[in-house]
Amino acid sequence: MSNAKASVLLIYTGGTIGMKEDPSDQTLRPFDFRSLMQEVPELRKFAIDIHSCTFDPLIDSSDIEPGMWKKLAEMIAQNYDAYDGFVVLHGTDTMAYSASALSFMLSGLSKPVIFTGSQLPIGRPRTDGKENLISSVEIAGSREADGSATVPEVCIFFNDLLLRGNRSTKIDAGGFEAFRSPNCPPLAEAGIEINYNRDVILRPSGKPFGVHTELDTAVSILKVHPGITERVVEDILLGRRTRAIILETFGCGNAPSRDWFLDIVRESNARGKILFNVTQCLRGAVNMDLYATGRALKDAGVLSGGDMTTESALAKLFVLMGQSDDNEYVKAHLEESLMGEISL
Ligand code: ASP
């Protein structure tokens, strides 16, 4: 293993971790990243070279747009050869969406890209930001005995757990345990040491590193619920500009079995739209062979998202649709595991 110090690039996009209270109205607003480095002098003690760059403007992650994912992917690509790993400081609200998107946009990844943030600003007493940031930097700089990265994946580190990015979801608006990946074990747990779960961590595919920055966002999400109306289902499933629809269904992939509902699903499929089924449940998977209501969806042309999160399904569609105008191409890859996002 080379004795050279590991190097990590910290990319600050905004979010609570780097926010300060504006004394004029007591709201939290992003502040200059240089202050963040002052707040965490511990970072300088690592045997890791840390450089940083920031988004301009800094954003609350509720304002994240696919164009910013593109900017982030390009920032990583431009610096890919110069660093051993990357830490992305990001607001928690949409972190699972961004981590999912980057996991599909960065192909042939052999280095860690660790998203983290915090529930309390880093300058506040009891902040979770310091711990999250320090451990993320350590993970991003961690290498195996042969010099390869310990975690060559896009991940979220939060409250002692390292989670696969495209398996993660925000589960708590206020608690420090804000993220979980219910269908995938943590890739590492931080205690006195950081214990890596090497059986779960993906190894690099061996393909050359590249970025997919072309995204097609013509996707809608329909969350089924008791009382949903024909008009609403029609608007979403037959929308002229929509290429794909994620159906967020009950339990293991079930939806209303009324004729009008299934007729619209069939019509949507006949118009060539991509229909992708994910469950509203936090844990478990879509299985459209279990109940007649699920089977009816499958027969109407709906594809199974298995145990994927909605965030991951959305990102996967954006990237696959960006790669090709041919919906058959997208459908052929949707049910495959591209980046460990689905259990097969
Ligand atoms: N609204 C903030 C954001 O997502 C919340 C946070 O960072 O936790 O940017």
Topology:
Elements: E1 6-12, E2 19-21, E3 28-30, H1 33-39, E4 48-54, H2 66-79, E5 85-89, H3 95-105, E6 106-107, E7 113-116, H4 129-140, E8 154-158, E9 161-164, E10 169-170, E11 179-180, E12 188-190, E13 194-196, E14 210-211, E15 219-223, H5 230-237, E16 244-249, H6 259-270, E17 274-279, H7 292-299, E18 303-304, H8 310-323, H9 327-334
Parallel strand pairs: 1-4, 1-5, 5-7, 7-8, 15-16, 16-17, 17-18
Antiparallel strand pairs: 2-3, 6-14, 8-9, 9-12, 10-11, 12-13
Helix pairs in contact: 2-3, 3-8, 5-6, 8-9
The structure holds aspartic acid (ASP).
Aspartic acid is lined by residues 14-16, 60-62, 91-93, 117, 119.
Can you give a write-up of this model?
The chain has 344 residues and is of the alpha/beta class. It contains 9 helices and 18 strands. The strands form 5 sheets. The chain has an 8-stranded mixed β-sheet with strand order 4-1-5-7-8-9-12-13, with helices on both faces. Strand 16, helix 6 and strand 17 (274-279) form a beta-alpha-beta unit. The longest helix is centred in the N-terminal third of the chain and has 14 residues, at 66-79. The mean pLDDT is 94. The structure holds aspartic acid. Aspartic acid is lined by residues 14-16, 60-62, 91-93, 117, 119.
